[in-house]
Amino acid sequence: MKRLLFFIATVVCIFTVSAQSKRQMLKKMGTTFYQEDFKEVLDMCVQFEKDHPKETDHLYYKYIAEMLTIDRGGDLNNLLDFEASKGKTDKFYNYWLGRIHLSRYEFDDAKEHLDAFMKLDVYKSNIILKETRTMLRTIDKARPFYDNPDDYEVERLPEGINTIYSEISPAFFNGHEELVFASNKNPKDSYHEAPVYSIFHSVKTGEKWSDPSPISVLGTFDYENAKIEIINEHNRLYMYSPQNGGDLIYSEFRNNNWTEPKEFDQSLRDRYIENHFFINDAEDLILFVKDYNIWETRLQNGAWSVPKPIKGKVNTSYYEESPFLSHSGTTLYFSSNRPESMGGYDIFKSEFDEATQSWGEPENMGFPINTIDHDINFEVTPNDLNGYFSSDRLHSVGGYDIYYFHKEDKITVKGVVTDLNTGQPAKDVDVRFMPVVYEDEVFHHKTNSKGEYSIQIFNGENFDTEVSIQGESLFKGTFKSDISLEQPYLTQNFEVRVPSQLKAKTDYTKLYEGTKEDSSVDIEMLGNKFRGGRKAVVNNIYFDFQSYHITSESYPVLQQIYDALQNSPDLAVEIGGHTDNVGTHEYNMELSQKRAEAVRDWILNKGIDSSRVKAVGYGETLPLASNDDEENGRELNRRIEIRVLE
After folding, report:
1. Residue ranges, CATH 3.30.1330.60, the chain
2. Contact present, 332 and 349 (Cβ < 8 Å)
3. Span 410-496: which CATH code?
4. What does the pLDDT look like over 301-328, one tens digit per residue?
5. Is 23-147 assigned to CATH 1.25.40?
6. Which of 51, 310, 509, 597: CA 20 to 30 A from 224?
7. CATH class of 523-644
8. Rounded to an integer, what distance in angstroms lies between the CA atom of residue 294 and that of residue 275?
9. Residue 317: half-sphere exposure toward Cβ, Cα within 13 Å
10. Per-residue pLDDT tens for 285-294?
11. Is the model's pLDDT at 546 over the cut of 60?
12. Would you say 61 and 29 are in contact if contact means Cβ atoms under 8 Å apart?
């Protein structure tokens, strides 16, 4: 019997420890998730699934983290299965779905969820309100670009060159059949990138790229300095070195090997070149980014000119990055986050005006060169028709991936959509042509009252086609565009069955069934945009009896408050002192004020700016519980509250 009891006790103990371990892992995962360190969440999920293979409590975090990092274009159904549960209990459900749909360029769905989130009658931090409004503005800015794609086709280079990490700064070598680029591939089994970038070289044979090989002799670089340029005529690979106040170094390709890097020109040392540079084919012009504007220095009579900002309309109060000059020297390409961009950094081009000897008004290169994500490191071949760039757009397998672009001819495809149920033209249906080689580019048009549509698409391409109405698919198929450019257009008709009654749309504003109250949160969540409320109740800050002297037992909690302020530089808080109703009102008000000030002084002495911390004593005026009993009454009312000031 004793053995049986011992066995039962052991099993119960193991089960309890396991349950505690699971709860602790999930809480830590949740905190990491709301800090938006999604790659760390995925690493934690791997460990959690090893320790608790049958558990599913982590999957909500996992699916969202995947959709916002490594699987942006993946199947949404696993996450949508949580609508009935998390849609009711997580007030951020619509926020997450809106953000995910936006990252997938599904603007209608994104707007629907983000609008629903904004309409929810729940507490939202100012930070998340501002961010959501920004996403809605991005949708409005991006939609015209996506609805009217330019004459470029964009293809992501294959996996092998692109990885789950970041590949940046592509440079042509030996024409565009060889590629040199920087990557922060991590040799360890982790979703996190390596802390430094290495330079890799890959060769294209036919349609296949070789496995990239590292050029070890070049060393490693941090992100800001991981920029390379190649001058093919001299087989030189240029890099930036922060030594000597900013300098260019280069390696040469000799006997199938890259040489040890050496300084390009010692006389450049006092010109303080900065990173994100460009050097032209003649090696007598250097563009570089300084103070987020593009500067230049020129080799004149054997000496480099004093650097100065380039003339014209390129530089602004926003950020200009990644300059690249066309081989003719007349077109400047660069990235910028100016208001004319769709969302992140877009690639712009500016033409040189010979009359004014300055750069003209920049033009956004449009979709699909640009997206709502970051598009950088644009490099074009001498014919100005094709080239490479880096982007963290949808369908990138990691952070930044390398993409190949080329200009294409367009033709017109026309047709009529007929409703087989009525034999009449189908109006207001959306006809879509999607190039197979680049699934994010969509050419579409809605039919008129006669069921007619007319769309410009690429010639000589394979397309997936779809006809839909209000998001409900009526037809899917394939199509090959292949006519001579002399022909006026192609004809493609569709026959579909339009439902007499379309499916009712979900009212996402009515999903959430949780509390509307401004509830208290953990201290570490105070500065987070996802906090459930504006205040944290702190019961374990201790003072000497009838005093405002803080005891040493309180230091760990005070440190938590300090850490929250330190980790969120924009966070400002009120320290509120509260008492029970023992004593006079005047005494309680004075004591609570002095206790709040004592907490404030402790935080300020650690280095937090005084403008970010306010102290207020409330005395007994705002009890949490009845003062009739000590336990769960007066004890709860003697407290410090930390409230976010918004």
Report:
1. 523-644
2. yes
3. 2.60.40.1120
4. 889 999 999 999 999 999 999 999 999 9
5. yes
6. 310
7. alpha beta
8. 11
9. 1
10. 999 999 999 9
11. yes
12. yes
